[in-house]
Every structure is written in structure tokens, then in C-alpha cells.
Request: fold
Amino acid sequence: MMSPRQLFSKRRRRRPGGFFLVDALVAMAIILLLTLVLTVAVTRQQRTTAKLADSRDAVRLAEQTLTALQAGDPAPAPPEGSLVEIRPAGAVKDVAGLAWVSVHVTHRGRSATLVGIARAAAGGSAPATSTAAAATAPATAPSGQGGAK
Reply:
């Protein structure tokens, strides 16, 4: 029969030294790598979401502007940091008082362009483009030449 000291020394010899430390370090490295990958993915997703939101805002502002022009109202004032350009795109044939207009909106680096039929400004010529939100005057509808009846 073996003494307790001999049993303890044999058990100790069978275990490789430092194995637990290497396992812990490898596990920590794997966790660190997965955390890094997750952080990069979340950051990219947030950036993409912000860009998509800015694009949607640009389209909404272009739609609001074109709708106002179609109703004969002045274009709404663009929010700070946005630029709305309204350009005539030609007269509508056989319909007096209507004109094609192009509405181009730039919002935080994202842009949207819509083309539609709007009421032409009555008499005189209106400016072809509106200014940024920092300007005091809202954008106005461009004048268009009515076609022959």
C-alpha cells in the first residue's frame, strides 16, 4: 500500500504543468476576438441605419416639396443642413398653367430627385432654385410656359 505522500506525488507528475493557464488564455483570446467582431458589426449597422434614414428624409422632403408645388402652395422651408433645388423641366403640352419641375434635395450628404407636374407660377419668372435652410425665403415654384390649347 502506498503512503498518501506517494499518491500525491504521482498524481502531480501525471498532470502537465501550465495546461490550465494556456486554456484560460486561449479562451480569453477567443472571447476578445468575438467581442471585437461583434463591435465592428454593430458599428457598421448603426452607420448604415443612419445613412438610410438620411436618404429617406431626403426623399420625404422632395415629396413634400413636389406635393406643395402641385397644390399651388409655396415649397416648405427645408430643415437646417438641407438644400432644395427646384428647376423647371419644360412645359406640359396641351395644358396651360402646368409645367414639369425637377425637385432635387440634398440632406446630410444624401440626395433625392423627383420630377413631376406642378402648377406654373402666374406671370413673371420665379427663381429656378431655392436656397438652403439657412436662407430666410422659402423655395418658390418655377414659372413654366403653358402649351398651346
Remarks:
- Residues 122-149 have pLDDT under 50 and may be disordered.
